[in-house]
Design a protein that fits this description.
It contains 10 helices and 9 strands. It is α/β, with parallel strands linked by helices. About 5% of the residues have low confidence. Bound molecules: xanthosine-5'-monophosphate. The site of xanthosine-5'-monophosphate has 14 residues, from loops. It is an enzyme of class 6 (ligase).
Length: 318
């Protein structure tokens, strides 16, 4: 007889007792988990919660500005930090997926640490960890799956931060997190959001990352995601995105031959991200999106749709 209202009430009460008048710092990603965790903490301790939202330059188009504004509008004590160029510089020339993840994760920690030092006397670090994160991290510490991707947001804290961790969603699954978010009256634009990886578009640009590739991928992704919304498909899909492929192929435009990049659209159904099926999106929808991308985004002349399920494929390509 778990209910989101009862969870909010008991969690807020427990957080108040646990945290008293202590300050908590927390990094926000714009995603559902960190947002819901932050609003729970906000309800418990108000401005003693200091949120930091870093623009790593690898977010979706306009996401940084839009999400930051909506957090502020909802009364969250949040500071935006535009660090995009620092991430791009650190990533120059790197193509290896795990190294890219490490660079992005490392730079986030560097920026976050600088910001957290500005919050004097903070005792706690808030995190949006949910139950599946906990399980995946445990299984990644040993055994045959030890080489599993380093995409774990758990246990990666640098020692020097020396903060106690508070994770109000640690026992919840994603659907429960969303129900808690609705009970907290967080707007649907945040709650209904698809999962998005921490390294963002950095792992959806196969090969090395440049500012220009990010810009192109943001445009394509925006066409796909807004198309899903327009066709009323967004909420029927667990996660969707676009991968910029390190492939060029020949096309024709007027009398000219082109030799440009290809993208792969990806849309999956899932309940927890551990297994996933590709979504049978309507052909008419795919046709419209493909035309819009090829006619609207310079540098792309071919659109493909990924029809692989997990396992054995993963949701992301890197
Ligand atoms: P895969 O690609 O392993 O992804 O099937 C499963 C889910 O995890 C997300 N993902 C990540 N999330 N950092 C994250 O925070 C990462 O490095 C990362 N890699 C994958 C992916 O988007 C999907 O929701």
């Amino acid at each position: 007889d778990w209910t989101p209202d009862a969870f909010v009430e008991s969690t807020v009460k427990a957080l108040k007792e646990k945290l008293g008048n202590d300050k908590v710092i927390m990094g926000l990603s714009g995603g559902v988990d960190s947002s819901v965790a932050a609003f729970l903490l906000n309800k418990a301790i108000g401005t003693n919660l200091h949120c930091i939202f870093v623009d790593n330059g690898l977010l979706r188009k306009d996401e940084y500005a839009t999400v930051l504004e909506s957090y502020k509008g909802l009364g969250l004590n949040v500071k935006g930090v535009d660090a995009a160029d620092r991430f791009y510089e650190a990533l120059v020339g790197e193509s290896d997926p795990e190294k890219k993840r490490k660079i992005i994760g490392g730079m986030f920690i560097e920026v976050f640490d600088e910001e957290s030092h500005k919050v004097e006397g903070a005792k706690w670090l808030g995190q949006g960890t949910i139950y599946p994160d906990v399980i995946e991290s445990v299984s990644a510490t040993g055994g045959p799956s030890a080489t599993i991707k380093s995409h774990h947001n758990v246990g990666g804290l640098p020692d020097f931060m020396k903060l106690k961790v508070v994770e109000p969603l640690r026992l919840l699954f994603k659907d429960e997190v969303r129900r808690v978010g609705r009970s907290l009256e967080i707007p649907e634009i945040i709650i209904g959001r698809h999962p998005f990886p921490g390294p963002g578009l950095g792992i959806r640009i196969l090969g090395d990352i440049t500012k220009e590739k990010v810009r192109i991928l943001q445009e394509v992704d925006h066409i796909f995601i807004s198309g899903l919304k327009k066709w009323d498909l967004y909420d029927k899909v667990w996660q969707a995105g676009v991968i910029l492929l390190p492939v060029q192929s020949v096309g024709v435009m007027g009398d000219e031959r082109t030799y440009e990049k290809a993208v792969a659209l990806r849309a999956v159904e899932s309940t927890d991200g551990m297994t996933a099926d590709w979504v049978h999106l309507p052909y008419d929808f795919l046709a419209e999106i493909s035309n819009k991308i090829i006619n609207g985004v310079k540098g792309i002349n071919r659109v493909t749709y990924d029809i692989s399920s997990k396992p054995p494929a993963t949701i992301e390509w890197e």
